[in-house]
Amino acid sequence: MDAFARFCCQHETCADYGKRGARNLTVCMRYGKDKRLRLLYCRTCHARFSERKGTPLFQARLPEAKVEAVLAPVAEGCGVRKTGRVVGVNRETVARYSGLAGEHARALHEELVAFSPADARGAVRRKMGLRGQERKAL
Ligand SMILES: [Zn+2]
How far is ligand 1, taken at its centre, from the CA of residue 6, in Å? Predict the structure, then answer.
């Protein structure tokens, strides 16, 4: 199996943008603490980018294990403040990583799922908004 099978070019104008397993990527440099992160090079468009680009871990200051510890309670439905207290990080940190993970999950969903049913909650919220306007009118 190709070592870069999970990765793809992140440069939007590249002909191989988003194509996993295209065999166009190499490691051109290691960086970060203890040189653990790889800087990938695309042979097609000659762009360089972090192996974390396009993930919630891109430019993360927390260690990967800590980010996972922050996101696990959030995935189980714990609130931002409660998660922050339990894990030992600021609630803003929890909110930021939750937002990043949510955007990433949405992008993955859009890529993998062909059809999504309409969100019924949107209709309920619209009704609630209308109800609020009706109250103001009275
Ligand atoms: Zn490329």
Answer: 15
Lookup: tokens for 57? 């871990």
How far is the centre of ligand 1, averaged over its atoms, from the C-alpha of 36 (Å)?
22
List of residues 6+ apart from 51 with CB closer than 8 A: 7, 37, 38, 39, 40
Write phi, then psi, for 103 (nearest 5 degrees): -65, -40
pLDDT of 98-119, one tens digit each? 999 999 999 888 888 877 777 6
Å from CA of 82 to ligand 1 middle:
41
Going from the Cα of 40 to the center of ligand 1, the distance in angstroms, rounded, reads 10
What's the angle, vertex CA 76, arms to CA 74 and CA 82, rounded to 5? Answer: 50
What pLDDT, in 10s, does the model give residues 17-56? 988 888 999 999 999 888 989 999 999 999 999 999 988 9
Ranges of H-type helices in 1-138: 64-75, 80-87, 91-112, 120-137
